[in-house]
Design goal:
Blueprint (H helix, E strand, L loop, with lengths): L14 E7 L6 H13 L4 E6 L2 E2 L9 H12 L5 E3 L2 H4 L3 E2 L1 H11 L4 E7 H5 L7 H7 E6 L8 H4 L9 E4 L8 H10 L13 H10 L6
Parallel strand pairs: 1-2, 1-6, 2-4, 3-5, 6-7, 7-8
Length: 214
Amino acid sequence: MTAAAPPDVKRVGARIGVFGGAFDPPHNAHLALAKAALEQFKLDALYIIPTGQAWHKSRALIEPQHRLAMTRLAFENVPGVVVDDRELQRAGPTFTIDTLQALQAENPQAQLYLFIGADQFAAFKQWHRWPEILQLAIICIADRAQSMPAQAQFEAYPGDSERFFTLQLPLMPVSATQIRQLLASGVATAGAIATLVPEPVALYISQHQLYRSR
C-alpha cells in the first residue's frame, strides 16, 4: 500500500518534492540529497519513490521487495519523507510523467519539485513526455561532483529556463554501482560498507546476503 501523505501537503501552496531512483541499494548520498532538498527548498514533504520496471536500465534490478525495504530503512528517521511504492505496484515500464500526474491529482493545490542528477538532466530531452514534466514540476538538479550545470544548459529550454534550479550538495564520492561491485567481488562485506550506506541498510544487506556473486 502506498504511504499516506502528511496532512499539510493538502493546503494551497504546499511544496512536494519527488525523488525517484532504483535505490539498489540506497546509500548515504541519497540520504544527503533528501535532507538538502527538504532544507533548501522548504518542502512540506519529499516523496522517495523506488523505480518499478525501469525502461532506461539494461541491468536487472534486485527484487522490488528488497529495494523497498532498504529504502524505508534508509529514510525512516528523516522528518518529512514519504517512501511511496506506487511505481513498484505499477505494471509495465515506469515513467516519471505518470507519477507526477498522479501526485498532482492527489494534491491539486501543491507545487511539485522533481529532483534529478546532473547526468539525468543531460539526457532530459530523451525522457518520456518531457515537455509535460516541465509543466508539472520545477526541476531541481543535484550534482555531487560539484560541477553545477551552467546557465547555458538551462537556456537550452527557451521559455522554460526559470523551471530549473540547482541543489547544493557536498562532495560525496559514493554510488550504488560502487557498493554492488564491492559486495559482489568480495572486497567488502556488508558490515564494511556501513560508511557508505545507512547502518540499517548495511544490516539488511548482510541479513539477506544481497549483491553476492552467484
